[in-house]
């Protein structure tokens, strides 16, 4: 039998997994949620959840991967023969996400090139973003991003994914820290003489805002934090199972899980430190929005107001965002590739080649969802959206919570937490948070995941 591909060691694995985890979720969703959900209050709740839920789900996925040496479809079947269906359901998540992730990557690429060519004034105009995505030629950026992703995955686990993550992640970390520090030094004054500084912005970010805190608001914040958390950690979509299957037996999974949690949460918190003070000083915190409009409308305006320094910061910002999106995008394609290779017994290069062609087409279709294939659909959670939002809704709001319900039941009650513990105890016999894990996976997680599922599908509100 051919030797299975693997990461070269712990560092390679942690950087690749952290590369998957750190993505646009950290940069455009986390800071927004902090601003919306009471600043430090959200931060505290989020950190507690990372150490409990995040830890539990991440441990589960990675241990399943390494123990079975397989990706989701085959791995769940190995765990319990009747559970292949859960594997197939899990496989659907990256399959759907892949249709639109390169589209978002393409938007980032576009802004990076706009800054590179020096036209950052144009990017600050009101309708710039809408004009761009509604123009069919915007498709090219998504296609380039998709090709790049395909190329890296084509080169294999160590030669492609690990090599790319080892190059990109350290740069990304340095840039995030650098901009966060710079953000704190910002200041602006208006005609009335009022001065706003980055440090005031930091206070807004970190101080827990308890005003008007009711039980229902507290629950809302907790659910926001929870859904952010597992999107951010790339769990319950088979990605961490696939990456786990490439980890050699001598690597300490306890340490690896902790390091991935730290990098992902660290970058999210630093992203807040770079974005919130900048928006606070130059646009006022009311200008804080989520998703594309934060990244492609509010921030370019803020950078423009900052003048020359804003130009440099903007350029660096879009570079690091492109890096973050790229390492996430390759993890999505890798999860699909690995499952296909196992199910169809095909080899990597051919599999990646075929998948890249399929997803080039999908990327084009989804990108054209704002022009040629424009639709406007009302989603069950009350929002309206185009093709991209439909894919996002099905994968993240519907499938991911559903999969975590079933996978926690499978591990907690059918296979038993001991099955995971054995893998975590290898090779040094220490599974430091074992008791916490047992309680979480059996009693807390399945129950809370049902609530999260009902909430994110909008069923709870009715
Ligand atoms: N974890 C990534 C983020 O925080 C998102 C992601 C989702 C990555 C799905 C891969 C797959 O943005």
TrEMBL record:
Entry superkingdom:
Bacteria
Which NCBIfam families does the entry mention? Na_transp (NF037979)
| Species for this entry | Roseburia lenta
- Entry keywords, A to Z: Membrane, Transmembrane, Transmembrane helix, Transport
Q: Does the keyword Amino-acid biosynthesis apply?
A: no
**Which PROSITE patterns does the protein's record reference?**
NA_NEUROTRAN_SYMP_3
- Name this polypeptide is given: Sodium-dependent transporter
Asked if the record carries the keyword Transport, the reply is yes
Membrane topology term = Multi-pass membrane protein
Q: Where are the transmembrane segments?
A: 39-65, 86-109, 138-155, 167-186, 225-246, 267-289, 309-333, 354-373, 393-415, 436-454
Provide the organism lineage as a comma list.
Answer: Bacteria, Bacillati, Bacillota, Clostridia, Lachnospirales
Subcellular localization: Membrane
Per its UniProt record, what InterPro entries does this chain match?
A: Na/ntran_symport (IPR000175), SNS_sf (IPR037272), YocR/YhdH-like (IPR047218)
Q: What is its main location?
A: membrane
């Amino acid at each position: 039998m051919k030797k299975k591909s693997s990461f070269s060691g712990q560092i390679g694995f942690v950087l690749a997994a952290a590369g998957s985890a750190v993505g646009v979720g950290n940069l455009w969703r986390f800071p927004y949620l902090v601003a919306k959900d009471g600043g430090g209050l959200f931060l505290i709740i989020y950190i507690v959840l990372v150490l409990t839920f995040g830890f539990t789900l991440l441990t589960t996925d990675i241990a399943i991967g390494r123990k079975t040496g397989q990706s989701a479809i085959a791995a769940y079947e190995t765990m319990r023969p009747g559970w292949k269906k859960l594997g197939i359901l899990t496989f659907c998540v990256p399959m759907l996400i892949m249709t639109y992730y390169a589209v978002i990557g393409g938007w980032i690429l576009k802004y990076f090139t706009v800054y590179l060519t020096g036209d950052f004034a144009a990017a600050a105009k009101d309708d710039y973003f809408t004009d761009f995505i509604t123009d069919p030629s915007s498709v090219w950026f998504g296609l380039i991003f998709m090709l790049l992703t395909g190329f890296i995955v084509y080169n294999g686990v160590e030669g492609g994914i690990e090599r790319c993550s080892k190059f990109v992640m350290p740069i990304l970390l340095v840039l995030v820290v650098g901009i966060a520090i710079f953000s704190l030094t910002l200041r602006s004054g208006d005609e009335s003489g009022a001065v706003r500084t980055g440090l005031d912005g930091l206070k807004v970010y970190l101080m827990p805002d308890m005003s008007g805190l009711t039980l229902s608001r507290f629950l809302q914040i907790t659910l926001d934090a929870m859904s952010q958390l597992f999107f951010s950690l790339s769990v319950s979509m088979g990605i961490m199972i696939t990456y786990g299957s490439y980890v050699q037996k001598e690597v300490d999974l306890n340490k690896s899980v902790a390091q991935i949690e730290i990098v992902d949460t660290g970058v999210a918190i630093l992203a807040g430190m770079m974005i919130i003070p900048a928006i606070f000083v130059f646009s006022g915190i009311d200008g804080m929005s989520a998703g594309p409009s934060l990244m492609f409308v509010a921030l370019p305006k803020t950078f423009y107001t900052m003048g020359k320094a804003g130009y440099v910061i903007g350029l660096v910002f879009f570079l690091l965002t492109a890096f973050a999106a790229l390492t996430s995008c390759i993890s999505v394609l890798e999860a699909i590739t690995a499952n296909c290779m196992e199910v169809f017994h095909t080899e990597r290069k051919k599999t990646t080649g075929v998948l890249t062609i399929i997803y080039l087409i999908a990327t084009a279709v989804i990108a054209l969802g704002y022009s040629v294939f424009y639709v406007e659909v009302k989603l069950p959670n009350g929002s309206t959206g185009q093709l991209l939002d439909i894919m996002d809704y099905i994968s993240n709001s519907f499938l991911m919570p559903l999969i975590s319900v079933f996978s926690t039941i499978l591990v907690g009650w059918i296979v038993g937490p001991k099955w995971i513990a054995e893998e975590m105890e290898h090779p040094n016999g220490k599974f430091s948070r074992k008791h916490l894990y047992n309680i979480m996976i059996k009693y807390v997680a399945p129950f809370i995941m049902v609530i999260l599922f009902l909430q994110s599908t909008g069923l709870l509100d009715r």
